[in-house]
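In response to a reviewer's request, we include the raw inputs and outputs for one of the modeled complexes. The two entities were modeled together in a single run.
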Amino acid sequence: MKMKPYEHPPALYPYREWSLGEDTYEEEYNQRSESVFALGNGYIGMRGNFEEGYHGTAGTTVAGNYLNGFYDSEPIVYPEGAYGLPAVNQSMLNVTDARVIGLEIEGHAFRLDSGKVHSCRRWLDMQTGLLHREVEWESPAGQRVKLAIRRMVCLRHKHLAAIDYAVTALNFAGTLQFVSALDGEIRRSGASSDPRLGSGGAEPSLLLEDSGYDEAAGMLWMRQRTRHTRFALLTAASHRLQAASGRETEQQLEGREVERQLEGQHISVSHAAGMQCGETVILTKYITYHTSKDYPEEELRERSASVLEMAEGCGFNGLADEQRTYLDRFWAHTDVEIKGDPALQQGIRFNLFQLLQSTGRDGVTNIAAKGLTGEGYEGHYFWDTEMYMLPFFTYTQPETARKLLEFRYATLDKAREQAGLLSQKGALYPWRTIDGSENSAYFPAGTAQAHINADIAYGIKQYVQATGDVEFLVSRGAEILFETSRFWADLGYFNPARGGAFCINGITGPDEYTAIVNNNAYTNLMVQDQLNYAYETSLLLEREYPSDYERLRQGIGLTDGEAELWKEAADRMFIPFDEELGIYAQDDTFLSKQKWDFEHTPADKYPLLLHFHPLVIYRHQVLKQADLVMAMFLLGDKFRLVDKIRNYQYYEPLTTHDSSLSPCIHSIISAEIGDLAAAYRYFDRTVRMDLDDINRNAKDGLHMAAMAGSWMSIVNGFGGLRQTHGMLCFDPALPEQWQSFRFKVTARGQLLDVWIGSEAAVYTLLEGTGLQIRHRGQPVLLHPQQPVSLPLARQLEAVIFDLDGVITDTAGLHYQAWQALAGELGIPFSRAVNERLKGVSRMDALDVILEGSPLRLTDTERLALADKKDAGYRQLLEQLTPAELLPGIPELLDSLAQQGIACGLASASLNAPLILQRLGIGRRFQAIADPAALQKGKPDAEIFLTAAELLGVPPQGCIGIEAAAAGIASIKAAGMLAVGIGRREQLAAADLLLPSTAELTAEKLLELFGGKGRRT
Amino acid sequence: MKMKPYEHPPALYPYREWSLGEDTYEEEYNQRSESVFALGNGYIGMRGNFEEGYHGTAGTTVAGNYLNGFYDSEPIVYPEGAYGLPAVNQSMLNVTDARVIGLEIEGHAFRLDSGKVHSCRRWLDMQTGLLHREVEWESPAGQRVKLAIRRMVCLRHKHLAAIDYAVTALNFAGTLQFVSALDGEIRRSGASSDPRLGSGGAEPSLLLEDSGYDEAAGMLWMRQRTRHTRFALLTAASHRLQAASGRETEQQLEGREVERQLEGQHISVSHAAGMQCGETVILTKYITYHTSKDYPEEELRERSASVLEMAEGCGFNGLADEQRTYLDRFWAHTDVEIKGDPALQQGIRFNLFQLLQSTGRDGVTNIAAKGLTGEGYEGHYFWDTEMYMLPFFTYTQPETARKLLEFRYATLDKAREQAGLLSQKGALYPWRTIDGSENSAYFPAGTAQAHINADIAYGIKQYVQATGDVEFLVSRGAEILFETSRFWADLGYFNPARGGAFCINGITGPDEYTAIVNNNAYTNLMVQDQLNYAYETSLLLEREYPSDYERLRQGIGLTDGEAELWKEAADRMFIPFDEELGIYAQDDTFLSKQKWDFEHTPADKYPLLLHFHPLVIYRHQVLKQADLVMAMFLLGDKFRLVDKIRNYQYYEPLTTHDSSLSPCIHSIISAEIGDLAAAYRYFDRTVRMDLDDINRNAKDGLHMAAMAGSWMSIVNGFGGLRQTHGMLCFDPALPEQWQSFRFKVTARGQLLDVWIGSEAAVYTLLEGTGLQIRHRGQPVLLHPQQPVSLPLARQLEAVIFDLDGVITDTAGLHYQAWQALAGELGIPFSRAVNERLKGVSRMDALDVILEGSPLRLTDTERLALADKKDAGYRQLLEQLTPAELLPGIPELLDSLAQQGIACGLASASLNAPLILQRLGIGRRFQAIADPAALQKGKPDAEIFLTAAELLGVPPQGCIGIEAAAAGIASIKAAGMLAVGIGRREQLAAADLLLPSTAELTAEKLLELFGGKGRRT
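The model returned the following structure tokens for the whole complex.
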């Protein structure tokens, strides 16, 4: 699907560099804003609901409070079951709402839908980590107040959140009453047919056990228990009421009266304050959650009290200072700066901030698909972690990256069970999970996505190589690698029907619009990478950590030859490739299906999954998301540039991006193959996915993977970062829309700042002792605090020529050779016949000639005749001299040689080397692409890219020269500048058109190159 | 999977020709017996529960009363939904139990678990259609009674059932009390993980509206309503109490007292009778069900009363007489007689009887997978109807067959909707349904089985051709055919990647152990047949019924060229074939998977679907049921015999028969390819599937399709019946276990009796004016009541020879030819080298010779050398004379010619015709198999079968003669008798071994043939 240029909708939230806010409240967007203004600390997540509750249209709010990894399990009822399907579904619980603060002014409850709202602003400050709200409100009776509310979920304190609620009496004196509550009555969203939401449950999952007001600790508390998992949850809050002047407001006795509404699971405490006109009173509420997943049940009360006591000691402002310090450090390691594009600047910072807020850092929780911002995907963890979020953490906060991987280690036993359930050895990680067990109730796009095993292995490899944390590999990573590699070795097999290649059947790749296939290319490539890495790891352990290795071997019963089997499977891995199309096949049968009819699919039928039966989707060539294209990013060195271009050009038009995980990958590959405009479009779509609500479901929670993907688009896409064995290699490019951009990466403990401007890239080692990197393939050694600036402008490094019509003209010789053969056979031959031979294969040409003959020849005889013609032609070639060079060519070759610009040849003629030699210019050409070794001829890019590859020059440093339209197309497809020799009507696509080679000079080529501003 | 010989368990029900019964009651088998003793009339179904209720172990009973097509719809909740999946599930309801009759003897309730049971028998009489029970019981107080209970569901009266309950006081005088009830409290079976059962529901589906006792009509009644579908059900009963002597028992007032237990949906009426010792009293209960699906709601009461009044007028015995008359006519048209095997005789009659009982005959109901005998598959109708049950009805009760097809016509609109839901034109019939809408909640083995469209088309074609009911075709069938053909034309496409062949992707074939594939061979073949038939039907209508055709075209908007497109799609249909294996591939990827590891699958892991994750099953070559093998039966003329053998030999070992629909098909194909022993084994397993509870789930209901399949095994398998264009062709064979068997078929209104004994088949036209049939390919004209007896013994019709070592010896000539070539090239050549050339291809042989040479040759040159050797060899052949014939051969050929026995040649030599000619015996051979045209050489059966085919002789009429082990294997695989010339150690498999051709005489061949008793 050709992506339409994305138009930002009118900004709901004005573009600000470091904050996200709104200056008026619009109910229409309420639920989206609840997601967008969510706060979190990796454990507690709070949607941006109002303290006073929601009084708008029913069904346009989700009051959400979540604890990472805190779930209930409900039985799954399958309308038609099967062996081995998950029996229960884990669902991250929406827990007791402790943010509730009602405000009454002389008996009038503050509500946005009553009285009069004079002004209403709120904003999320990403530098301080505070959510602000300011409202000026007039009660129905005319009392006017100003509210200034600050909310924080403490990044430093896992169990703590706080609200600072200031009220100023603007035009009256009187009494305020704050009714602060814990509301345990959770309204669950109902069943939905949208598979991206949960199936919903009918019964409440949290059952009240007890609640009360602890006078000694000043603590309101509620203890609940999950219905099925039987986890205990203790929610608690304490309060401090004070005047802004510092004078403690007298707390009236009735202010402490505790109202309990047991049936409603609602408990509240009221505070009243007498106000002077103009005076400001502040209620600070500290909130804490503790569960029996983390601590012994009997400690929950005491721990809550102790956290609240600590918080009160700090005060809100003290906590806010800590928050700021925490975030300063965060941004110092992660900030991405985009100059010249405030919308995208805001988007990328918002994304990184939300990633921080949603990520579990304790080794037993992880990152849910929607983080802690909503209930989409039920709080489940997916491959999203390793493939999308982990890279961000690996390169900015490696300690968090390690915790995420430790989660996989902690759940390895469950993965072993899952493999057993599927009759396989080793371990199979769940497609979606909270506690490590499989939660996917639709296995074709769930359990079948076994590639998650290889994704986790890839994450481990990247993490270990980038950080150098071999200790993790030895103590945990290796066991994961070995057990998941065992799974693959057992699942796949050396298939006699494929010449003994290692095949993997009956799995689903990343693209969920194709399910249960054999030999998904992405999967097989990733498994190949994993098996090699597992094998290498086994060698490393054996060599360097023999006792750890022995212990591990014993522990998991690793037998002799297992690692060697992995290596063999990797070596003989089957990768489906279509010879005719010259591309990798997504799987064994993908290319034999019909292509999706995009032309007749109106825009409102996307995402397809909500409008077409799965069978309809499965029957077509159509992708939900990057599949093979993703492998081209992850395993870039497995693909030649020409393959990347060809594959991308095939799959890109078939990709709907109905998955939010897709555009960022396309952005990265677009950047790599030199299409910066497309890279920018895809990035644009990714980076503001939730702020502009592109997928129209931000209300259900934010798209964490897309957010992390936008970071990858910056760093791996425009920054061109690739890493192998710990070496960071950059190939940066600046989109024309920007003035500059900047990002930071940490590798092996060293912090690097990368700035890309229009002329140069500047690398600065901010922390560390010295770092070797590569810039466009060239090694660069960085010293601390010594910026290295490297130019970005491309030089003309090579010119790649076609032969016929550009260097010489061989058509006449072919004519002579055919003529001689025809004469020998006594067949009439003419120029007219000769015309029919152009662009025709040798054997077909012979058949054309034989048409005029009564001869009936065997294949052997025909072959002999063709050989004879060739021999004749070669004899004629032998007679070529430099005189046959076309005008201007000798001078051009001389001039290029003088300026150190390389020359390459991209001709379909098998006799090209002989011709160049006879023309006396053989030594002028440093590379000749061998047409016999090509998968596809012109207009495919392959021949020009091959010549450039042989010269060691990137296509962006090349000019190609051609006399035929197919050749011009080939040059353009290769991403080079094209010079055409001939007439406009044929060669209109050329960047420079010259009527003859006589006009062709080095100066014109250099001018063309400079004029195009090849600054990438 | 090689099927183990099936051992009948100890007979639970003694083998009786016309009844099924037990002489003691065994609680262990209670639930199975409830299914087996079920009664029905195609509308009402009653399981064999006791009138007094069940007092055994909990969970081992299902009190079941069903009305065909009477269902409730419950919402389906998908744990992970998708667009287009069915939103509700229809489930055939277990309705109010009206059979309940409690008996109290002087206050003691009759129960099998109290007092003393002196004897207890019950039996189902398949000639009278009555279920009998006789119990002699002694109450705890010592009163002894004899009960004789008869039950009937009236085949003549859709809404009527009756119970005749006689009690004799054996040793006392006193009072009996009958408490007769309507029990509307249905106990539903709970959720099950067995996908073959329903998912179960939590809430009752039948809600009581009202109940009462109608004094005027003497009618106890209850009105209920289904929860979701809002259908009304009226259940009613009336009673007659009398003494056996004929004297009306005085009905005491309190006997009429109506007890109502509204909450329990239970209403009852009591009758008391004073008894003399030795006296017999009979309570007759008439039961009727009416629903608003059939009649206006307000008529239900009145209709019930009127049916009961009619029944009382007839009396139980009058109804029983009608029942007997009905069944006499049924058996006259359907009976199958098996002499010499009482178990199978009982089995086949039981199956036909249950088919009759379960089949809807009103055009709006059909046959549920478990009939009306249980709740497995929730009363849904499947393809089972057209593919398994319909043939039985088509050939025995065509009026019922038409009603079954009318059901499909009645639901065509729903099928159109379903096609639309799948983004396709035309109509797609549901995989499982009650009212015509799709009810499959697991689409990979449900909606994806689009082959049901072609199955229905096939059923229509068979029905119309066998009955000549063109009126059905014109008025209904054509519309079904056209709309379903439209579906195919839209679903499939001319695939450029397959040379423009018509491909059908993303469907599931009959075998549910493989799901969602491209080009399932069964489906594509069946669709091809359907499209051809639809095209022919359009021509027929255009020609013969132009106004009907025009009306239909208008009605469904049929456009010009549509029918032609169907024809083109049929002509260009892609049928996957594996050249290397020489077999049809089940689908595009089936053969590239791993074969299932049967060796390591213990017996208790079957059926696989209950013990392995679907992904594990999908990844392997393993079949749940006949798939391609089924196509070989249905579309036999699309396959050569050699294909059938080869395909069967490939797929049979991979088939688990985990589906009860499978063994009967394997039985038919085994019979066709001449393996009568296997055909018998598979038949045995099918015909007593429920009586012996082979699949261990007869308790959930009887396997209707398997029952009908057992009829097909008899008629199509052992009887060898195939039908094309209305012509019945028989190729009968008698299993050696039987003395004879007999069956009846009706075609075009004529009733034919077919008897197969050991020596002859006897065809008798019982009704009709004259019928042309074929027996073993020969036309036979039958006249009414004039039996035609045709012998079954096979004559030796042909002898098929190998050439080398049997007729002559050419090894020496090859040696000479190679030797000459080697000499010319100057390469040493020896006998040792020559030995290495045997059984090696021409080009490989050349390479062996060239090993000893320094020559490095191009392919063209090597080809030229091989041609040269051939030329040399042919020159040597030219010099052959009759003198080179091996001893005895000339005499044998003479003798065979004199006796009219044909000769064929099955030699791998391309020069065979030349050799025979030079040997002077060219004219002795009527057929020479061309080895160049073979898919596979020896030991495959193809070459011998090809020779037999050319001779027009079935393999059972041939002897093959061979000198090599591979050749003997080929002969045996072809199903011929094999004569070996040579040594025992090599040719042990031969039926006759002779040391040299000198021993080979026509007499020995004829003796071998006769001695083997080739009576098939």
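As requested, we also summarize the result in words. Chain A is about 35% helix and 20% strand. Confidence is low (pLDDT under 50) at residues 251-255, 1012-1016 of chain A.
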